[in-house]
C-alpha cells in the first residue's frame, strides 16, 4: 500500500483538469499547495459536452471559489515595466510589482518601434484555408518578417531562436510564418527564430516576442482571440520587448483589446502601418522614431550609479576571493574549516 505524502505541491494547477490534479492526492496528504495563474490559459478540453459539464474547471479554481486561503505572488521578475504595466492593470487589479533591474534599457530600445511595448496596426486580409477552422493573415506575415529582419540586422544578438519568438493563436498562421522564415533564412530558420502557438508558448519566455493577432474583418469577429487569458499569456512572454501586430479596427470591439490599443496610443507606441510595409523602415522614417537620449545631468547620475554598482561588485568579489584563499588552508582539517567559515 502506497504511503500518503506529508505535503503535495502542484505547479501549473490552474492549467490542469481536476481528475489530473487528484492523482497525487489519492493516497492522502497533510497539506496541499496549488500553484498557478487563473487568468492564464486553462486546460484544453476538446469535448464541448465535457466543457459544459464543468470538466474544464480546475481544482485550483474550485478551491479559490470555495474560499480556501489564497496567497498572491505579486512581484514579477521577467518583464520590463513598460510591458508589465498593462497586464497588471488589466488582469491583476494593478497589484503587480516589478523586481529590481527590470527597467534596464536594451540597445533596441533606441527606437520606439522596437519596444519595450508596441502595437502595429496592420489592416491586412484574413483568410481561412480550405477545410480548416483555422485562420491566416499573409499581410501580417509579410510585416512581421520585415520587422524581425530590421531588428536582427541592427542587433545581431537577436538573430537567435533563444532570444526572439513569433507567436500566434492560430496553427495555420504559425505554419505560414514558419514557411516564410524558412524561405527567407533557409534551413537555419529554426536557429534564428522560434515560432509557436500562444498555447504552446505558455510558461516560456524570450527577450523579444512578436504577436500576430491574425483576425481582420469588417464584422469585427475575432474568435478565440477574445479570450482574455490567451491574450494575457501572449503579451507577458517577453523580457524586453513585446511587439503586437494586428488590426485595431477589428480588435477594438473587444474590451480588453480596445484597452490595449488605447494604452499604446497614450504611450506613443501605436503605429499605423500602411502598404508598402518597406516604407515603414526607410531611414528617414526610422529617424522620427529614434528615442531621445536622457539629458546630460541624468546621464551623469546614471553613470555614477553604474560606477557605484561596479565598485560594490568588485568589493564583493574581493571578499569572496579572500574567503576562497582562507578555505584552501583548511583542506586537511574540515572541523577547523567549519569553525573558521562562520559569519565573523
Textual characterization of the structure:
By secondary structure, the chain is an alpha/beta fold. It folds into 3 domains: 5-65, no CATH class; 76-288, Rossmann fold (3-Layer(aba) Sandwich), CATH 3.40.50.300; 296-340, no CATH class. The chain is 40% helix and 15% strand. It has helices at residues 18-22, 48-52, 59-65, 81-91, 138-154, 171-185, 189-192, 198-201, 228-235, 248-251, 255-266, 283-288, 296-328, 334-340; strands spanning 5-10, 29-34, 75-76, 97-98, 117-121, 126-127, 136-137, 164-168, 194-197, 206-212, 238-246, 270-272. A 6-stranded parallel sheet has the order 9-8-10-11-5-12. Strands 1-2 form a two-stranded parallel ribbon. Strands 3-4 form a two-stranded parallel ribbon. The longest helix is centred in the C-terminal third of the chain and has 33 residues, at 296-328. The protein starts with a strand and ends with a helix.
CATH superfamily of the largest domain: P-loop containing nucleotide triphosphate hydrolases
Residues in helices, as a percent range: 40-55%
Q: What is the number of domains? A: 3
Query: What is the string of helix and strand elements?
Result: EHEHHEHEEEEHEHHEHEHEHHEHHH
Span between N and C termini? Answer: 50 Å
Spatial strand sequence of the major β-sheet? 9-8-10-11-5-12
How many alpha or pi helices?
14
- Detail the poorly predicted runs: 295-302, 321-344
What is the CA-based Rg, rounded?
A: 25 Å
- Sheet having the most strands: 6 strands, parallel
Strand content: 15-25%
Cα shape: globular
Give the CATH class of the largest domain. Answer: Alpha Beta
Total number of beta strands = 12
Structural class computed from helices and strand pairing: alpha/beta
Return the average pLDDT rounded to an integer.
88
Amino acid at each position: 500500500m502506497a504511503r500518503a505524502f506529508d505535503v503535495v505541491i502542484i505547479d501549473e494547477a490552474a492549467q490542469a483538469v481536476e481528475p489530473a490534479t487528484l492523482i497525487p492526492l489519492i493516497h492522502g496528504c497533510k497539506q496541499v499547495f496549488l500553484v498557478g495563474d487563473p487568468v492564464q490559459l486553462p486546460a484544453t478540453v476538446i469535448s464541448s459536452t465535457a466543457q459544459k459539464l464543468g470538466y474544464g474547471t480546475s481544482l485550483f479554481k474550485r478551491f479559490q471559489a470555495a474560499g480556501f486561503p489564497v496567497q498572491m505572488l505579486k512581484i514579477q521578475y521577467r518583464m520590463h515595466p513598460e510591458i508589465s504595466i498593462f497586464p497588471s492593470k488589466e488582469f491583476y487589479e494593478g497589484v503587480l510589482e516589478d523586481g529590481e533591474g527590470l527597467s534596464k534599457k536594451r540597445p533596441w530600445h533606441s527606437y520606439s518601434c522596437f519596444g519595450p511595448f508596441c502595437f502595429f496596426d496592420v489592416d491586412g486580409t484574413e483568410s481561412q484555408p480550405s477545410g480548416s477552422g483555422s485562420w491566416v493573415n499573409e499581410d501580417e506575415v509579410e510585416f512581421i518578417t520585415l520587422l524581425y529582419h530590421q531588428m536582427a540586422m541592427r542587433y545581431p544578438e537577436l538573430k537567435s531562436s533563444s532570444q526572439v519568438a513569433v507567436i500566434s493563436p492560430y496553427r495555420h498562421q504559425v505554419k505560414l510564418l514558419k514557411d516564410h522564415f524558412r524561405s527567407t533564412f533557409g534551413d537555419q530558420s529554426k536557429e534564428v527564430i522560434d515560432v509557436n502557438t500562444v498555447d504552446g508558448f505558455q510558461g516560456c519566455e524570450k527577450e523579444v516576442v512578436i504577436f500576430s493577432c491574425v483576425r481582420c474583418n469588417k464584422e469585427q469577429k475575432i474568435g478565440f482571440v477574445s479570450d482574455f487569458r490567451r491574450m494575457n499569456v501572449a503579451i507577458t512572454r517577453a523580457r524586453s520587448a513585446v511587439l503586437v501586430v494586428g488590426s485595431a479596427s477589428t480588435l477594438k470591439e473587444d474590451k480588453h483589446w480596445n484597452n490595449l490599443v488605447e494604452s499604446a496610443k497614450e504611450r506613443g507606441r501605436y503605429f499605423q502601418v500602411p502598404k508598402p510595409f518597406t516604407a515603414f523602415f526607410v531611414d528617414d522614417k526610422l529617424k522620427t522614431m529614434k528615442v531621445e537620449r536622457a539629458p546630460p545631468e541624468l546621464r551623469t547620475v546614471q553613470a555614477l550609479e553604474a560606477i557605484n554598482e561596479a565598485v560594490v561588485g568588485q568589493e564583493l568579489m574581493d571578499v569572496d576571493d579572500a574567503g576562497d584563499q582562507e578555505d584552501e588552508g583548511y583542506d586537511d582539517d574540515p572541523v577547523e574549516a567549519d569553525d573558521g567559515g562562520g559569519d565573523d
